[in-house]
Amino acid sequence: MAAVHLRIGDLVWGKLGRYPPWPGKIVSPPKDLKKPRGKKCHFVKFFGTEDHAWIKVEQLKPYHAHKEEMIKINKGKRFQQAVDAVEDFLKKAKGKEQNSDGKGDSKGKKTPNKPLKILEEDDEDLSALKDPSEKPASSMEPISKRLKIVEEVTGSTSIQAADSTAINGSITPTDKRIGFLGLGLMGSGIVSNLLKMGHVVTVWNRTADKCDLFIQEGARLGRTPAEVASMCDITFSCVSDPKAARDLVMGPSGVLQGIRPGKCYIEMSTVDPETITELSQVITSRGGRFLEAPVAGSQQLSNDGMLVILAAGDRTVYEDCSSCFQAMGKTSFFLGEAGNAARMMLILNMVQGSFMATIAEGLTLAQATGQSQQTFLDILCQGQMASTFVDQKCQNILQGNFKPDYYLKHIQKDLRLAISMGDMANHPTPMAAAANEVYKRAKALDQSDNDISAVYRAYIH
Fold first, then answer.
1. Pairwise CA distance, residues 305 & 326, whole Å
2. Which distant-in-sequence residues (6+ apart) come within 8 Å of 185 by Cβ?
3. What is the per-residue pLDDT across 128-140, written as a single tens digit (0 to 9) for each?
4. What is the largest CA-CA distance in the chain?
5. Which residues, in sequence order, are bridge partners of residue 46?
6. Contact 193/165 with Cβ under 8 angstroms?
């Protein structure tokens, strides 16, 4: 098959890593952005986003020749919106060409046909691809220059980062050395996206063989948490529970042994505020800088770089990590003093866990009363509670697919911690308490390592 020669202005399908091909346009890179060494690639602006990336030539296909093929294999809503944006762009460009064809010069001569002009990203005709309420900003600016300040009703300030996805090549990665401890369901996707966006990452995991894939992708290997913290400027951790978080820092060969003045430690695990306070104190006692940054999402959202990051603690660490947060998430919020992010995260997971248990209860009640579970789901997804979460979890239940996207044992842990937090605040949490009992029943039925939707099985056994 003859090679296809592509050039600036061509519409293409670009594939980055494990993510599906996405429609884009080859554009000129910024003058200060160097082409990756030893790689034949083009700089691509993706439609429907503000994202750019260097894409290898072998991962590019002409847009028109492969349009039908790509539409068949990709069905997501955001993907369809991107394709629609391309088609709108082409219609506008064609209309401009036809208007110019119909005009003659002062001598009555017809203006010669011009080739279709593929506009650069700053041309007016691409304005439909952008949020009209968003102020123009260079997509190559660090995220710290593109933050939206949101004043909450409480008076505290949160920061919402500009939207980002895992195909976001517009990120300027920090030159700081990044460490990451914990390669579970969430951590694996986070590290993959950090690497894809050009960060220098050193990894460690209690089960060492989980590091192999990331070493192949360009990560470095740390032998202990202490070594990672010592080697890196910023060290993230994402583990299962408060005990694991404490052990990682204060245990043998723990992070604390590698902390020196100026080193940053970021706790991404979902734990209780008391654990965060303790970790913050021991890190700062060694001259380190501390931030908590638990994430709302799932394994799929982690893989897609679409997590929501809740940060609290040292504001300067938050700003230093802006490129990391943009690589791993779509939005980040700064919530003030350490402990606030843990509180907010537990409240969010309490709501999610309780809601999932209620949906499972509804499905089983439908079955018990002779109603079609599929019809129940169809009706649910046409009403006010319609969401991707409801659709995916219910479909998985009906298919008997409980492959973990978020472990059931972890949502039960979060419910337990949220109930305890309510007790300390003398605030009732009866709905969460009831849901917690259902998850405990599911754990007794050996569902701990399945997805949270496996709470359904607590109702049928």
1. 8
2. 298, 299, 302, 404, 405, 406, 407
3. 333 333 333 333 3
4. 88
5. 24
6. no
Please tell me the pTM assigned to this model: 0.68
Q: Which residue matches tokens 């991707």?
A: 388
Alpha-carbon span 193 to 139, nearest angstrom: 18
Q: Which residue has the tokens 């694991």?
A: 244
Closest to 50 (Cα-Cα) out of 24, 11, 16, 12: 24
Q: Return the sign of the alpha-carbon dihedral for residues 37, 321, 134, 329.
A: positive
Alpha-helix runs per DSSP H in 321-407? 322-328, 340-368, 373-380, 388-399
Q: Of 411, 394, 293, which Cα lies nearest the Cα of 341? A: 293
Beta strand pairing status for 220-221 and 157-160?
A: unpaired
- Is residue 211 within 8 A of residue 183, CB to CB? The reply is yes
What is the C-alpha to C-alpha distance for residues 51 and 30, in angstroms, rounded to an integer? 13
Strand-pairing partners, residue 312, are 292
Taken in order 47, 49, 54, 56, the sign of the CA dihedral is negative
Residues 6+ apart with CB under 8 A from 200: 173, 177, 178, 220
For 451, half-sphere exposure in the C-beta direction (CA atoms, 13 angstrom radius) is: 20
Q: Which of 32-36, 91-95, 187-191, 330-334 has the lowest mean pLDDT?
A: 32-36
Distance of alpha carbon 256 from alpha carbon 455, whole angstroms: 38
Distance CA 120, CA 122 (A): 6
Beta-carbon count within 10 A of 428 CB? 11
Name the amino acid, one letter, at 105: D
Please tell me the distance from the alpha carbon of residue 267 to that of residue 277, in angstroms, as a whole number.
11
Distance CA 147, CA 455 (A): 39
Q: Tell me the H-state helices in 12-138.
A: 63-73, 77-101
